[in-house]
Amino acid sequence: MHASSIYGHVLQCYGSLLMLGVIALILSPVNAKEPCDFFDTVNVTGDRRLTDGSYVHENVTIPAAQVAQYSYIYKYRGEKIEVEPHLRGCICHLKPCLNVCNGWGNMKLNRSESSLNITFLDGSTSLVDVAEQFVLQEQRICKEMYLLLPEDNFSWLLNEKAVLWEEVQNINRTKADFCVTQFEWPKASGQYSIQPAVCIETSEFVVKTQINGIVMWLSIPFMLLTIAVYLIIPELRKCNGKLLACWLSSLSIAYSIHPTLAFGIHTQYSIGCKLAGYSIYYFIMAAFLWHNAMSFDTWRTVRNITGLTIIHFVRSGASRLDRE
Ligand SMILES: *[C@@H]1O[C@H](CO)[C@@H](O)[C@H](O)[C@H]1NC(C)=O
Ligand SMILES: *[C@@H]1O[C@H](CO)[C@@H](O)[C@H](O)[C@H]1NC(C)=O
Ligand SMILES: *[C@@H]1O[C@H](CO)[C@@H](O)[C@H](O)[C@H]1NC(C)=O
Ligand SMILES: *[C@@H]1O[C@H](CO)[C@@H](O)[C@H](O)[C@H]1NC(C)=O
Ligand SMILES: *[C@@H]1O[C@H](CO)[C@@H](O)[C@H](O)[C@H]1NC(C)=O
Ligand SMILES: *[C@@H]1O[C@H](CO)[C@@H](O)[C@H](O)[C@H]1NC(C)=O
Q: Does the keyword Transmembrane helix apply (predicted)?
């Protein structure tokens, strides 16, 4: 097989991979059957269904197009569990949602003691019933969380969009980052108040992925150097040298994008995050395919060498026979 036709095949692989990636990117707004992200939904199985197919959940009417079957739930973020298919409606786009820490001890939100001071976007503050102000979702976000208690000098404000502002760190948290629970405060007073809980960042995991990322970045200059050597020196500019350069270039592009995920440059579900994810997938797959091409090239070379040797051996043997 001629070297240029190998390139043709590999380029075809590159092309079809790119096509697959583009198709996946177009279809990516979650599963076609699921109108929104799981975390923006509530279980509407027991809710009243109107004649037009919409569901009424806590006084919010969810249009039929925003209701679909889900066959999984998330116990925690990142821990998906298969369950019986059930109907869920996308409610958080219609009314702000607030997460109630499900499975926090035995506590659930006591609906008769659920008032909280909420700040409104016009700057005013008033005491509202959270069960009326927000749609309550029962999602424990992380396995390990801590409460923002006043005794630990935490101070926070919840606004009408269910965004929690935490004073100490001066950060705004959306519902993906906190949940609320009822807590006896002051202690042993018999009075319960609503307190938010936030995730304990598993720093070990974060540090590990960041070190990985830095090592990836550090290896890129050496890959580029290798590519340069193989392209500049004419003796190395052969089929296997070019294949090596292609493989290393795919790998170095993947290695340059991958660490951006570990350093939290992209926000979840953003277009940048999707692009980074699909690009990494594409270039890692491309690197594997170049590796395939390299194996083929190696096999071809080895076969030719042994083939030539045998032919040479037979020929020389034959000529010796002739002479005798
Ligand atoms: C959904 O709600 C129904 C009725 O309240 C309940 O039987 C079912 O277990 C719930 N499903 C999940 C996965 O929470
Ligand atoms: C919930 O509210 C009811 C009625 O006010 C009260 O009897 C009950 O003790 C409360 N439970 C908790 C856990 O606060
Ligand atoms: C709500 O705010 C008012 C005025 O700032 C305060 O008196 C009241 O104790 C607060 N209530 C709660 C439940 O935090
Ligand atoms: C639903 O609306 C009724 C009547 O306006 C009200 O009494 C009830 O508290 C509302 N429920 C919620 C969860 O907002
Ligand atoms: C909270 O602040 C008070 C007064 O500034 C201080 O005495 C106390 O030690 C702080 N508590 C904690 C847990 O940091
Ligand atoms: C948090 O949100 C409020 C209101 O939306 C805004 O005024 C404030 O600047 C935000 N703070 C941070 C740290 O993003």
A: yes
